[in-house]
Amino acid sequence: MIKKPFLALAGKRRANSSFSKKLVAFCLGLSLVGCANLSAQALFSHYSAALQQPHALVARGEYQQALEQLPDSPDGEILDGMEKGRLALLAGDLEQSKAALEQAELAAKAEQDKAIIRLSKGVDQIGALVTNDNMLTYMPPDYELGFLHLYLMLNYLKENNLQGALVEARRANQVQERAKRLRDSELQNASNTATQNGIDDNVGAVLAKYPPAGKLLGSVQNGYLFYLSALLYEAEGNLNGAFIDYNRALAVEPDNAYIADAAMRVAFRQGRRDELRLLEKKYGQYQRPDRSKGQLVVLNEQGVVNARDFWRLPLWLSDSRGYLEAHTVSLPYYRSYTAAPQKSFSVDGQTVKPVQLANVNGMAQNALSEAMPAMAVRQILRVVAKNEMRKSLTEKDDSGIGNLVVNIFNVLSEQPDTRSWQTLPESTGVYSGFYSSGQHTVNADGQSINVTIESGKTTLVWLSRQGGHVVHWQGILGGI
pTM for this one? Predict the structure, then answer.
């Protein structure tokens, strides 16, 4: 005959077992709430880990292999389209590149259209509050949107479609401005949330680990995009547009003599005497080019942008009972945000060196610094929510199994948001000069490129250089 105490103990064990099973189901179910882009990679890993091999391959110049090694939709249509579009361009597949970039553009626009609602109370945030930021739909920072349209511009230029490229130039300015407004709204929302939840000091401690945002204009605005847009406006004969964008590029990279020379050339052609005088005061007297010659412009991309790394930072918080508890938060960061000097090449055997248009590493770091206040607020609130959830769910679990299950789930699901466009170049630069009409040779990293110069016109050469490999394209633009 079984005594009642043993029956009670067995019942208690069954109750604990039942509770633990429900707890496991609860944790898994919780991760599914409102997460439109759920994947095991997003929940229990992070983007830089998934892109490690393709990132290394493109750094070695193995573009086709990098394209083939891209994970299937590692983070939805936006990042997937941008990564594929860039790699397909480098691999020489123009059709795939354009299709992938256009897919990313449409997805990004749709996400921007929903951003206001998401900032106030989006369903994605519900799931992210108990899992991680990777469950949020990715919204590219404005510098990535600029590059998205820049590479669409290059695709159109490869098709000899100047008007299509100019449409993308105008769109690039519009989408970047829209992204900036949305980012400002998100920052204000994050500030209000931090104040309402009494975590301003905690957020401040996290932000102290990061460089301040917006320190240099070159980290905020894209001189590469401005210069290429200006060059295309000039080719079209839109000298007003060209002068504006050359000056915007010059504001970003004020020591770039090639941009200054282009700005002075357009000022001279338009009869902008006051503007030309100011430019000459800073950059020297303008030398009008020989009309029998043509202009060679070489856009030089090199290296691969840094991937986000992550660290775990200590965090002290008071729980609902007023007890001080030690926690850690997982946040992304960049090991460095400098760029190597622009690599030289030769024109007709004479060594020349491009001058920087954009430090993409610096732009990536600045975008992260701008996103960090909102990211830190979400991360701290997530730590609080997970801790309270653990305590609430394990109060009646005498076995300790529930506590173990929740702790394991919390640790595994607390992944840093390392998402960014990781196949972009590390930096870009420009060289320009005037040469006699006819055939000339550009040599970069041992590869010779024959170029044609026509009197009074601009020959544009685009280079992308990674791991000793060179991808190139050339075309002749309009008059100068």
Answer: 0.86
